[in-house]
Design a protein that fits this description.
Largest interface: A-B, 18 and 24 residues
Number of strands of chain B: 20
Distance between the termini of chain A: 36 Å
Radius of gyration of chain A: 23 Å
Strand order of the largest sheet of chain B: 6-7-8-3-9-10
Order of helices and strands of chain A: HHHHHHHHHHHHH
Number of helices of chain A: 13
Oligomer: heterodimer
Number of helices of chain B: 9
Largest sheet of chain B: 6 strands, mixed
Strand content of chain B: 35-45%
Largest sheet of chain A: none
Shape of chain A: globular
Distance between the termini of chain B: 31 Å
Structural class of chain B: alpha+beta
Chain lengths: 280, 377
């Protein structure tokens, strides 16, 4: 029994000290307690949602039958999926470009690409609002084209994250592997497909996860770029909160959390957790 | 290693490579013959790797021509050249199994089906990795990964196999073993090997010919034994093996004998001519193992025996200033009467040999008149 063994603690075995265990416990509580409470109260049989009044599934029923809420969720998922795919392609290409080539104003390009990460979201939101108004971006298109403005805005702030993650992965690439592939007869494109992309794969998955979650829960920029008929999930939840905090909101949020966890698990499974951890 | 005349498979003609203003390779010309185990030997930064990479096509010569099997390589990219390379880091593809790694070149070349499998098995057998097909590179040791890299190149049946510091990442025991295996492998496949190394032991043990490179230029091109016993200049003498070098003046130079007056070593006799300018500044190079250190009392007997041929031997006296016991040999540093120091190595033929000497012992030594090499540069 490991628990009962009284081997003396080694100097670096911090995980065996009491205060460290308490600290880790406290961090866990701070991180997850609100989420767990939110999930529990989604089953609360009470309109006010302050005191526990018994178990019910009716708010899930209600949430799933709330057409506007479901539409918002579908919108959010669609935007996130589109933004992820485009960000991944743009981010990977810009990362390879910055890593591989020398060109005039490289430093400037390098700095500009990461600008959307630094600029406050509120400024980005206002900027997008003004931009789309100025170019008179059509707002009355059919679905999913009516989401184009939001999607473009999301791509703008998502792809720099992909660039960053992929670049740090590329820094660990052994150029001799590229040369080995060419030495064995591979052309530029074959080398890219067979050697470089497999090397980038964990970073691409991490970047996709980042993009997807960033896009899915973005509120500020979306709020400024959404038209009257294009409500996304976070925006919808916010508008529901203005009336009252009903368990319906909890139920919808719980669905979203579970969806995110499942998607993350699939992504991790695809690559193996180890490879993701390798992407510093 | 037969001496039959062979045709050159690689011809390097007046090749210069400049990085900015620095010439990494400076007007080098040499022929590498078909079927030989050729080694480019030199200190780090001497340009040997650049030369190898120019043969592979990863660097382009600033000036000059490289011909492989008679064909000018100008404008031919690495993936179209009939050579393959084993990289210093091995560059095994980490996301592919051993079989996929080895088969990569064949697949790119469009070979399909059973032939790939057969040739992979054959190549792995050749490098003694039969049965490792499904392993992933991260489940293998450095030595095994190197064999994968070798198999991956050999499967392409290149005209020339280039190896960049192939043994530098292996531990000493494995390195010694791989030296033999590489030489064996080369015998088996009959492909020309061109290896870059900074390790003289590696070069001497594997090569059929060695080009010593210094500052982008070929210092000497010779067989291993010629390189060691007849170095052409001080750089080669010093870089290949361990050596004592003394500066002196050539005072006697006849067809069958010569003498050099060295400030440090006294008069050194040789039993052959040097054909250098009389009175010129020259250097005498003397390998530590060519000097015979007398055990106490032995010196007189040797001198007596040498009476008949006084110019066949050289004698010196000194005091032991340093000793290092290396097991098979003991290395002595001896202060000569002139104050100069000389290194002498002595095989430990019996278990008690090292007990005959200690620090500050006065000792005498001799070496044969055909041992020193006179260097003009």
């Amino acid at each position: 029994m490991a628990l009962l063994s009284r081997t003396p603690r080694a100097p670096l075995e911090y995980s065996r000290t009491l205060w460290m265990r308490l600290w880790v416990g406290a961090v866990m509580v701070f991180l997850y307690a609100p989420l767990i409470v939110l999930m529990i109260f989604s089953f609360n049989d009470s309109k006010r949602n302050v005191v526990w009044r018994g178990f019910t599934m009716k708010y899930y029923d209600k949430a799933l039958n709330n057409d506007v809420l479901v539409e918002a969720l579908v919108n959010s998922l669609t935007i996130a999926a589109l933004a992820t795919v485009v960000s991944l392609i743009l981010g990977a290409i810009s990362a390879v470009m910055l890593w591989r080539f020398r060109f005039p104003l490289k430093g400037a390009v390098d700095g500009t690409i990461s600008l959307p990460i630094i600029v406050p979201e509120i400024c980005m939101g206002v900027a997008f609002l003004m931009f789309f108004a100025k170019v008179q971006w059509p707002t009355d298109l059919i679905w999913p084209l009516n989401l184009s403005a939001i999607t473009i805005a999301h791509i703008t702030f998502c792809f720099p994250f992909v660039t960053m993650v992929v670049r740090s992965r590329l820094a660990s690439f052994n150029r001799e592997q590229e040369e080995a592939a060419k030495d064995l007869g591979a052309g530029e494109w074959q080398m890219f497909r067979d050697v470089l992309i497999p090397h980038m794969k964990p970073a691409l998955i991490a970047g996709a996860l980042l993009s997807f979650t960033l896009s899915l829960d973005d509120f500020v920029i979306t709020y400024f770029t959404s038209g009257p008929d294009t409500v996304t999930f976070p925006v919808k939840v916010y508008s529901m909160l203005r009336f009252s905090v009903t368990p319906e909101v909890n139920a919808a949020s719980t669905i979203l959390i579970i969806l995110t966890i499942v998607l993350t698990a699939i992504a991790l499974k695809l690559q193996g957790v180890k490879a993701i951890a390798e992407t510093h | 290693m037969t001496d039959a005349p062979k045709k050159p498979i690689i011809q390097i003609q007046n090749v210069t490579k400049r990085f900015g203003k620095v010439a990494a390779v400076d007007n080098v010309s040499l022929d590498i013959l078909a079927g030989e185990f050729f080694v480019l030997l030199g200190p780090s930064g001497c340009g040997k790797t650049t030369l190898l990479r120019m043969i592979a096509g990863f660097e382009l010569p600033t000036e000059g021509t490289i011909l492989i099997d008679g064909q000018d390589m100008a404008g031919i990219p690495p993936n179209k050249r009939p050579v393959n390379m084993v990289f210093q880091s091995y560059a095994v593809f980490p996301h592919m199994s051993v079989a996929d790694n080895v088969a990569y070149g064949l697949k790119i070349a469009g070979v399909r089906g059973g032939e790939v499998k057969d040739r992979v098995a054959e190549a792995l057998e050749l490098v003694k990795l039969g049965g490792f097909e499904d392993r992933m590179p991260d489940q293998m040791s450095g030595g095994q990964r190197q064999r994968v890299a070798l198999a991956r190149s050999l499967i392409m049946r290149p005209k020339v196999l280039l190896l960049d510091e192939p043994l530098s990442a292996l531990d000493a025991k494995l390195r010694a073993q791989m030296q033999f295996e590489l030489a064996d492998l080369q015998d088996q496949v009959g492909i020309t090997f061109v290896t870059v190394t900074h390790d003289q032991d590696e070069a001497l043990s594997m090569a059929s010919r060695i080009a010593v490179i210094n500052k982008g230029d070929v210092s000497q091109l010779a067989t291993p034994s010629d390189l060691y016993e007849y170095p052409a200049n001080r750089f080669v003498a010093d870089f290949v093996g361990s050596v004592n070098i003394f500066e002196g003046k050539l005072t006697l130079d006849e067809p069958d004998k010569a003498a050099v007056d060295c400030a440090g070593l006294g008069k050194v006799y040789l039993n052959h001519g040097v054909t250098g300018p009389h009175g010129a500044d020259v250097w005498v190079a003397l390998r530590p193992e060519k000097i015979y250190l007398h055990v106490p009392g032995e010196g007189k007997a040797v001198r007596a025996a040498a009476q008949d041929a006084p110019e066949g031997y050289n004698f010196a006296r000194g005091k032991i200033k340093g000793m290092s016991y290396l097991g098979d040999i003991t290395l002595f540093e001896i202060e000569l009467e002139s104050g100069a120091r000389i290194r002498v190595s002595r095989p430990n033929l019996s278990r008690h040999d090292q007990e005959d000497f200690t620090w500050d012992d006065k000792v005498s030594m001799h070496w044969r008149a055909d041992s020193p090499v006179v260097l003009l540069s």
